[in-house]
SAM-dependent MTase RsmB/NOP-type domain-containing protein (Microthlaspi erraticum), 593 residues
Amino acid sequence: MKKARVLLKPSFLPSCLTRATTFFSSVSRQMEMDPSSSERYCYDPVLQWDPQVEEYFNKAYGPDHFARISKALTRPSSYSCIRVNTVKTTSDAVIEKLTKILNESEDGLKLAKPDGSSAISKCQIPGLEYVVFVNGSGPHRIAYDFGLESPPKEVLVSRKCAEAVLRGAQVYVPGVLACTAHVEKGDAVAVCVAMEQPGDDGDWSVNMTRGTTLQGLPTDPFYCERSGLYIGMGTTMLSRAGMFRVTHGVAVDLSNRVFRLPSLHNVLEGEIFLQNLPSIVAAHALDPQKGERILDMCAAPGGKTTAIAILMQDEGEIVAADRSHNKVLDVQKLSAEMGLTCITTCKLDALKSVRLPNTLSDSTTLVNDENSGSMTSRSELSSNEEMAPAASKRSEAEKLCEETASTEQPNGGDNVSQSDMRKNKGRLKNGRGRTQSQGGRAGKSQGFPPNSFDRVLLDAPCSALGLRPRLFAGLETVISLRNHGRYQRKMFDQAVQLVRVGGILVYSTCTINPSENEAVVRYALDKYKFLSLAPQHPRIGGPGLVGRCEFPDGYIEEWLKPGEEEMVQKFDPSSELDTIGFFIAKFSVGCKD
């Protein structure tokens, strides 16, 4: 493969002005269309990208390929991917239970394909037989009552609500922004999407006050913006007044959808986990073995953590870290639901994962006491109970995550500052704060010594430009995409120190951005000569990008070299696999000397 040389041309217009000009040109074209055309009532969104970002991706993937990617991102996958908890059950048992549940549901999901085969099936990829697919369908053309003299009544929902609906959710009250006048409970309504629009200052926002009355006529100020953004017909569960009066509940029962996917929320809890196929493959790429010590650096919500534990048959030691208190509790909850005992959780910023030598014996951890709502030192709790209930016995990792310490410094001074004392008084007076609102405990770690783990998974926080369905992408700029990559390099610098010699490091993201994917791999291989790309199994993703990109400001972004592209896995949303956009790189750690 020839080495590609990508050059981005400088833009002569400010980013915000160019973006707004592109958008309003699109709106003008829409206004020239016949407003009575039935083409208005359809689902045909077009992602609005920052012009420089679009140029960058066009150069990376080619204009035609990126157009296919961009279109695929606006649609959900045609199937739901389910990972079976083989510690508790089997794929066959889950298929039998799901078939019964979905046949009895009111979703109207047909559990048979046109050829007569079942819509629920096992994954046929070797090693992934415990993965189950539930097929959906779409896009469907919906009849929006064109026979009526007046246009259909409409409910306008937020973009995030619409993205959830496209994945199978219902329309809940918090997601409703506007509604046609005189809508009563039981009315048939068309559901459409409110998209962010560019402002004069370059910011994007929904230029609409919640509770706005829709006219449904060409004179409606939001008429053009809704064209091509209709996601289905449904029945209102509340009147218009009710939708804007109550704070929760289903607003519209969406029975006729553009995309029909089963809602598996709270179905077979502990036995199955809804997870994208590339995420499952990332856990396999780590290749965890029984008895090993493994770190998941950015673990929440715990999907990959529990996948690793199941591959280890719950024998070994997994440290699941995240910097958010409540997200750590989510991992604990999922581990408990799945009956996994080898997982230890701790609150830890990935950028501070490596414990410096001078802090190895200097740590005091305060945790929330469930019963009193007060903050208690770990030394007071160590004799009573474990801090992370996901694990059944105290392990070496728990000792690091839940390290005990005296409330006095070696020299006899008080190591609790006046600021901390005031905060603790406030907690006693006011109760739990937002980060403790879920109850439970999240042990705070000071980090880990170098070479502490056999394997490390860094599923890095990213721009998430591979997630689908996605209806908006206007916020990202070339600079922000580049900054994401810089942030991930800092996390990688931490991860590589924590893997022992001979160990494995897996880096993954859910984005299509080369700055966060191939460029990070190039950085890692150039900086750490003891790293080498390792084969991945199973390998079902495509190759990475080879070449480089030169930016107008002189910055050069290096990607993969010829021969390296087949060592990574890049999942393309527009490919036949029909997955999210995802990237996986696996590194073997050689002698660090």
Summary: Residues 1-36, 361-416, 428-437 have pLDDT under 50 and may be disordered. The radius of gyration is 26 Å.
